[in-house]
Input
Amino acid sequence: MWRAGANSATALHTDADLDINGLKVPAGDYTLFVNVQDPDQWELIVSKDVGEWGLAYKQDKDLGRAKMEMSKPSAPIEVFKITLSSAGDNAGKLQMEWENHVASVPFKVQ
Output
């Protein structure tokens, strides 16, 4: 499991309930991890555990998981990047880019 960043794991705070590619995420605070066991099919993990540092992933704290859509960048990406973009009508996309991978997942504000 990858903490989707360096040192501290990536935190997610949402004031609204979300649907992340079928995963229901109630308003609140979470930690994001990514299952990269298969480098060609990443899985976003939303953990109920917060304040994570390093590799302290605990599977029993998973709220759930969502498959990510994979693509390749035109050139290798040296600096990890997370982007949130709008897709209209209370919808958006969370995208992670690093090395030879671009992984994205759609979300909707409920």
Remarks:
- The mean pLDDT is 93.
